[in-house]
Amino acid sequence: MSPGVFTVYRWELRKLRAQRRTYLGLGAAVLVPIIFVVALVTQSGQPEDVAFGRYLHDTGLAVPLVLLLFGSVWMFPLITALVAGDIVAAEDRNDTLKGLLTRSVERQQVFAGKVLATFTYAVLAIALTGAVALVAGILASGFNSIVSLSGTRVSAGEGLGLVGLSLLFYLVPILAIASIGLFFSTVFRNSAAAIVGTLMFSLLVQLVGILPGLGSIHPYLLSTQFNAWQGFLRSPVDWGPVIRALWVCALYAAPALFAALLVFLRRDVAGD
Amino acid sequence: MPRVTPQATPIEVRGLVKRYGELVAVDQVDLTVEAGDVFGYLGPNGAGKTTSLRMMLGLIRPTAGEVRLFGRDPQLSVKALEGVAGFVEAPSFYPYLNGRENLRLFAALDGGGAAERIEESLGIVGLGERAKDRVGGYSHGMRQRLGIAAALLRKPRLLMLDEPATGLDPGGMRDMRDLIRELSASGMTVLLSSHLLAEVEELCNRVAIVRSGRIAYQGSLADLRDQAGEGYLLRTSDQERARAVAAAQPGIEEVEASPEGIRFGARDEEAVGALSLALAEAGAPILELSRRHATLEDLFFSLTEGEGAGPTTSPRSGADRTRTPVEAG
């Protein structure tokens, strides 16, 4: 069988498994919820001004949801950027692209394999955070029902499903961030610049979101889409922000990936 | 796309140009490497050799011109690299993976039976014992050998090597030459970019000498020496007088003083005999009069340095130059 995207993808995962930065990102994804819950247990207070913050001592289900809100500022963009910003640029750093592109896989297959590996890492990071936050939260506050954003009480079992759905949907803006990181990684050919660039982009969009007089563009900012999962925690489900997040994130991700692919296909591998 | 056939010429390059803004790195290069050749690609630093090699492997897009590897265009698809392997500049690997894993990665991307050749390739380059170590801890020479092993995974009919002996100790260089010789003997066509003139002289049957992005000479080493001709070296007890006598002697040309003695060219052997008599009559007894063949180094310098350098330039002028190592571009 001829090698293709899956072969590249498999080896990109192997390369990620062998690199420290992968564990730095995944380590943060695991440690942050633990630190958060430890802080929660050792203090009687709770963040009242954040959605679900007031329920942190009532149910462990609130922990991953509050973390999703806090994490959108810089934590998840940074964890995502650690790999997305590096996965192409690292080939330039190690000067390995020439070896990769003179084997029997086409450039577009190499790129697709890297995109899939980056997305896999991002999914794993969110899954780890969610799982650890849930377990730690349940250990600290119990597996109890939770009050939805509409004020209705949701059973623990149903709440667990909604938390899972929220985590899953949180991947939509995260994958858009990953796409932008891949773009910077391909264009800058420098890991540090691409990681910082991705983080700066994320922070800049959030900054635009808090500027007065720009309310009309808020629904279309990438930062706003990090809250779209809250639509699932209303009764009935508020599909408006959910559907908007899908196409708004696609508008950020698709051009970034397409531009990155074009650059990758056309670039000279000159070893400079 | 033309189908690759065993009869197709391994490398055909026509009118290859690469410009970076105002800089012309490769300028109208035409190159033909025939099956079975060990083809030396020589040139000083910055002459555009590596850029040419990168274009041949599809890594760099040419500004103009075309490359065909066994009849296929590497700019269109990596399928053109079927039966082709090698490396440009130093071979590079993932430092956090061990040698064997790096080869497994490349073999996976090669497909076919490449994975089954990993141990054999490691054995050929003598890295079997160190294959379990991370490449980050490899010496330069070990990386070079791993680069050859990675190339052999593809079971190539054409091997393109850029400075394979660079950074190797004398033993490593000898081993590398032996390996190239063995691969060539097995029927493999080799394109060898090297700054080591002795290596090219020892291994290659044909050469291209590149200067400022252009091919200054292409052909067999034997033809190059024939074109360059040969000269004579003369030492006498009175060099000044001998030089004057030689310059005035019919049939004697291009008389030049050098630290070794007086160098000159001659129309024929009779002219040299007549000169020896004239020197004796002029009171400048001959201490040494010998024929000097142009070395590849002489030819290289004459082709790559100075105004209007070309294959018809006498190697004698090159022979007077300081023998500094030639860096490859």
Can you count the beta strands of chain B? 13
Total number of helical segments of chain B?
Answer: 11
How many discrete domains of chain B? 2
Order of H and E elements of chain B? EEEHEEHHHEHEHEEHEHEEHEHH
Largest interface: A-B, 28 and 37 residues
* Percent of residues in β-strands of chain B: 25-35%
Shape of chain A: globular
- What sequence of helices (H) and strands (E) makes up the elements of chain A? HHHHHHHEEHHHH
State mean pLDDT of chain B (0 to 100 scale). Answer: 85
Distance between the termini of chain B: 32 Å
Q: What Rg of chain A do the Cα atoms give? A: 20 Å
Structure keywords:
heterodimer; A: 272 residues; two-stranded antiparallel sheet; globular; B: 329 residues; alpha/beta; Rossmann fold; 2 domains; 4-stranded antiparallel beta sheet; 11 helices
Describe it.
The complex is a heterodimer of chains A (272) and B (329). Chain A is mostly helical. In chain A, 68% of the residues lie in helices and 1% in strands. A two-stranded antiparallel ribbon of chain A has the order 1-2. In chain A, a hairpin with a 5-residue loop joins strand 1 (146-147) and strand 2. Chain A is globular, with a radius of gyration of 20 Å. Chain B is 33% helix and 26% strand. Residues 307-329 of chain B have low confidence and may be disordered. The two termini of chain B are 32 Å apart. Chain B has two domains: 11-221, P-loop containing nucleotide triphosphate hydrolases (Rossmann fold, 3-Layer(aba) Sandwich); 225-319, Alpha-Beta Plaits, CATH 3.30.70.100. Chain B has helices at 49-56, 99-110, 118-124, 140-152, 170-185, 197-203, 221-228, 239-248, 269-281, 296-304, 315-319, and strands at 11-20, 23-33, 38-42, 64-69, 84-87, 158-162, 189-193, 206-211, 214-220, 230-236, 252-258, 261-266, 286-293. In chain B, a hairpin with a 2-residue loop joins strand 8 (206-211) and strand 9. Chains A and B meet through helix 1 and helix 6 of A and helix 1, strand 5 and helix 2 of B.
